[in-house]
């Protein structure tokens, strides 16, 4: 079995060009840097959340409001497909954060079965749920995100489905962390996608083999060419200069031509996903989705305007382009 250090080196897949590094040096560790901002408790949304392995999609894990009777007609659930860090197939690896998103009225589909074992590096994350998985640890692929979207749209149209008429196929987002962010980047050209959210991730800035060798490079097809296929607004949320993806994510933000937001908080590569309610990440992630998928103008004020909420918050490093 690989050591935690070796697993991180191969699985997290992200490295920055040495010519662009800032201090402190980027790291693949999931531990927060010593000068990270204090944890922020973000309250859940109004919906209790049910997590399931849905019939017809055993390769994924579904997070959704427990009571689906509240949805349909004019109140349909937007669809969010999620790719895990390390391209892990563990559907509960980001359970805390994805539960927060679903509690605000979203159908979230994470790549990986619900009963998959967590990867070894998950032990680094404070508060990480540690289920007794029966499915061996494995890796997902870029196409798993589109598989999730295809399934959700089909379920919305299937009369026997509990989701019949309750989902909105016109409001679809791709999200992912680290390697999962690369997967979202690779699939962002799908015309059904209305927004993309990249967490602690960015394509490799330099040509040649990826850190970790050919095996890790093959986990995602994302390249700088993938950025040209973006057609919908994108948000990049990074973990500050100590985040191994910081330089790459910042470079991607500069390259994309679609409306884009860049926000970075000094949380390291592991972010704040496991803080109560997802912490800082849970707060901004839900507001971005509320704005881009639900048309919530109040949520949009967090990202646009001369005095946008995150612009005024000194904890955040912010950049924007073509965004209104």
CATH architecture: 3-Layer(aba) Sandwich
Number of strands: 9
Q: Could you say what the CATH topology is called?
A: Rossmann fold
Q: Beta fraction of the residues?
A: 15-25%
Instruction: Name the quaternary structure.
Output: single chain
- Arrangement of strands in the largest sheet: 1-2-4-3-5-6-7-8-9
Q: What share of residues is helical? A: 10-25%
Rg value: 18 Å
Mean pLDDT: 87
The tally of structural domains comes to: 1
Overall shape: globular
Number of helices: 9
Q: What structural category characterises the helix and strand content?
A: alpha/beta
Give the terminus-to-terminus CA distance. 49 Å
| CATH top level assignment | Alpha Beta
Explain this structure to me?
The protein is an alpha/beta fold and 324 residues long. The chain has a single domain, classed as Rossmann fold, CATH 3.40.50.1820. 24% of the residues lie in helices and 18% in strands. It contains 9 helices and 9 strands. Strands 1-2-4-3-5-6-7-8-9 form a 9-stranded mixed sheet, sandwiched between helices. The model is unreliable at 1-23 and 207-216 (pLDDT under 50).
Highlighted features:
single chain; 324 residues; alpha/beta; Rossmann fold; nine-stranded mixed sheet; 9 helices; 9 strands; disordered N terminus
């Amino acid at each position: 079995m690989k050591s935690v250090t070796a697993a991180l080196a191969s699985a997290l897949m992200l490295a920055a060009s040495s010519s662009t590094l800032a201090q402190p040096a980027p790291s693949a560790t999931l531990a927060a840097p010593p000068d990270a901002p204090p944890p922020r408790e973000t309250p859940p949304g109004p919906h209790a959340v049910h997590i399931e392995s849905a019939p017809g999609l055993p390769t994924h894990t579904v997070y959704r409001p427990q009571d689906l009777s509240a949805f349909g007609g004019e109140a349909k659930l937007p669809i969010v497909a999620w790719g895990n860090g390390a391209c892990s197939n563990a559907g509960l690896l980001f359970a805390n954060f994805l539960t927060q998103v679903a509690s605000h009225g979203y159908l979230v589909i994470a790549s990986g079965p619900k009963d998959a074992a967590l990867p070894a590096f998950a032990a680094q994350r404070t508060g990480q749920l540690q289920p007794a998985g029966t499915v061996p640890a494995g890796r997902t692929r870029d196409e798993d995100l589109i598989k999730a979207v295809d399934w959700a749209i089909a379920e919305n149209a299937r009369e026997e489905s509990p989701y019949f008429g309750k989902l909105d196929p016109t409001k679809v987002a791709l999200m992912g962390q680290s390697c999962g962010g690369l997967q979202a980047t690779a699939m962002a050209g799908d015309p059904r996608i209305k927004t993309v959210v990249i967490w602690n991730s960015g394509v490799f800035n330099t040509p040649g083999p990826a850190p970790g060798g050919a095996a890790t490079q093959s986990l995602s097809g994302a390249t700088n060419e993938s950025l040209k296929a973006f057609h919908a607004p994108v948000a990049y949320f990074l973990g500050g200069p100590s985040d191994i993806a910081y330089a790459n994510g910042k470079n991607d933000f500069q390259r994309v031509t679609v409306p884009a937001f860049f926000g970075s908080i000094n949380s390291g590569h592991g972010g704040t996903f496991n803080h109560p309610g997802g912490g800082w990440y849970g707060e901004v992630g839900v507001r971005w989705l509320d704005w881009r998928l639900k048309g919530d103008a109040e949520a949009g004020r967090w990202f646009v305007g001369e005095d946008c909420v995150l612009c005024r918050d000194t904890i955040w490093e912010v950049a924007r382009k073509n965004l209104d």
